[in-house]
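Ligand-bound model needed. MU-OXO-diiron.
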Amino acid sequence: MLSKTIEEKLQSQIHKEASSSQLYLAMACWADVKGFPGVANFLYTHSDEEREHMLKLIKFVNERGGHATVPSLESPAKNFDSLASVFKSILEHEILVTESINDIITDCLKENDHTTNNFMQWYISEQMEEESLARSIIDKLEMIGSDTSSLYLFDKELATGHEAH
Ligand code: FEO
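Prediction:
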């Protein structure tokens, strides 16, 4: 059975995962119309993954005696400055998500909630992967700069999922 505190924290995490999904969907749309189909494909998939993260939490809350609320969401930004700024925003966003997951685990430890702690460990590994993937993409984009033929190849590479996990 979930405590009120843990249920509220998980509910707030549900909101964050749903917001991530919306944000990455908006970024995918931007990349799509700006002529980066590979990046768009990568971001559409990333958006789907975030929805899966949300769903996993919703099901966990409901299975553990809570009752998840489906969050209402604000519309994310429509335009972004550049590919580099998109991936920098993703990294910043994921760092905040990691902090919030760590915070849930701290509460689980305080309350001896080993079940939720154990469940949240999956998210810890996922965050490590997502942060390191965003960092490696940012590094690559910094090397490429504004070289259009390299950007074209970078886009193709993301399309084939070489960077994705
Ligand atoms: Fe579900 Fe990217 O954190």
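Residues 114-144 form the longest helix (31 residues).
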